């Protein structure tokens, strides 16, 4: 686990462009965006402003005026899961989409322009997990990291790590760092030697009704307080708090069922 890269330029408050392959944005498509905005606004302190409308009504979440994530209305003709979707940066989304197809993945949306913000595609890997590709123009992606209310990590839960890790390595240029263990199937994906995402192979323990899927971790100041707040807001705790090498973690879902995780960094 690590903080998102490319959130700001060195010695500057000016946002920097995310390196190719880096997780650069997370977006959630739901049936009821107004209620979803209310939920996450209360949980993370987000405010909202309109974003590109190419896929329907869409807003960007802001934390202290800086862009964090996106929430949109699920188009009735798009069969996408209600789930937080990570976007990975690309210098050429059309070329990346072609690589996805050539390596056994699929492209379900795009590539298409999102007004002057950039160009996007939404695809799935060979196991079926959905992810996005973002070619930045005016909108660089998430511009703040390392504080409560921001994405802290993205982790793919899938059947096994080796094959799907090869797919992401080929598409986005990641390096791989497997965990050497007989009973723990995990690969960290690295850019420039720094971990930026993870792949956790669960085998038959993967929830049958979900299939392979990405999970976004959001940083919080106090995970117990956040869980209490989440409960009052109508969210659901899926896996109680547990300690990891990277902090205290709880797996939860919002009122529409979108799964995510809360991460309290070690003090």
Topology at a glance:
Elements: E1 23-30, H1 33-44, E2 47-50, E3 58-63, E4 66-73, E5 84-89, H2 93-102, E6 106-114, E7 118-124, E8 130-136, E9 151-158, H3 161-172, E10 175-178, E11 185-191, E12 194-201, E13 213-219, H4 223-232, E14 236-244, E15 247-253, E16 259-264
Parallel strand pairs: 1-4, 5-8, 9-12, 13-16
Antiparallel strand pairs: 1-5, 2-3, 3-4, 6-7, 7-8, 9-13, 10-11, 11-12, 14-15, 15-16
| Largest pleated sheet | 8 strands, mixed
Which structural class should the secondary elements be placed in? alpha+beta
What's the helix-strand series?
EHEEEEHEEEEHEEEEHEEE
**Strands across the major sheet, in which order?**
2-3-4-1-5-8-7-6
Find the count of extended strands (DSSP E, 2+ residues): 16
Model regions low in confidence, pLDDT < 50 over at least 5 residues: 1-12
% residues in beta strands:
35-45%
Shape: globular
Q: Oligomeric status of the shown chains? A: single chain
Radius of gyration: 17 Å
Number of helices, where a helix is a run of at least 4 consecutive DSSP H or I residues: 4
Q: Note the gap between the termini.
A: 16 Å
């Amino acid at each position: 686990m690590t903080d998102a890269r490319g959130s700001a330029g060195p010695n500057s408050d000016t946002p920097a462009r995310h390196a190719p392959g880096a997780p650069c944005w997370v977006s959630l498509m739901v049936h009821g965006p107004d209620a979803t905005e209310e939920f996450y606004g209360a949980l993370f302190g987000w405010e909202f402003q309109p974003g590109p409308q190419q896929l329907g009504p869409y807003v960007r979440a802001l934390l202290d005026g800086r862009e964090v994530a996106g929430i949109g209305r699920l188009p009735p003709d798009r069969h996408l899961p209600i789930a937080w979707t990570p976007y990975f940066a690309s210098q050429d989304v059309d070329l990346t989409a072609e690589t996805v197809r050539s390596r056994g993945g699929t492209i379900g949306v795009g590539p298409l322009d999102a007004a002057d913000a950039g160009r996007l595609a939404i695809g799935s890997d060979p196991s079926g997990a959905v992810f996005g590709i973002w070619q930045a123009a005016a909108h660089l992606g998430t511009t703040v990291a390392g504080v409560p209310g921001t994405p802290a990590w993205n982790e793919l839960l899938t059947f096994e790590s080796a094959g799907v890790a090869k797919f992401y390595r080929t598409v986005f240029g990641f390096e791989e760092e497997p965990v050497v263990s007989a009973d723990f199937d995990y690969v960290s994906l690295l850019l420039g030697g720094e971990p930026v995402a993870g792949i956790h192979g669960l085998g038959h323990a993967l929830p049958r009704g979900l299939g392979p899927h990405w999970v976004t971790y959001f940083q919080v100041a106090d995970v117990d307080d956040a869980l209490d707040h989440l409960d009052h807001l109508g969210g659901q705790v899926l896996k109680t708090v547990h300690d990891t090498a990277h902090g205290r973690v709880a797996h939860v879902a919002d009122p529409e069922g979108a799964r995510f995780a809360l991460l309290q960094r070690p003090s």
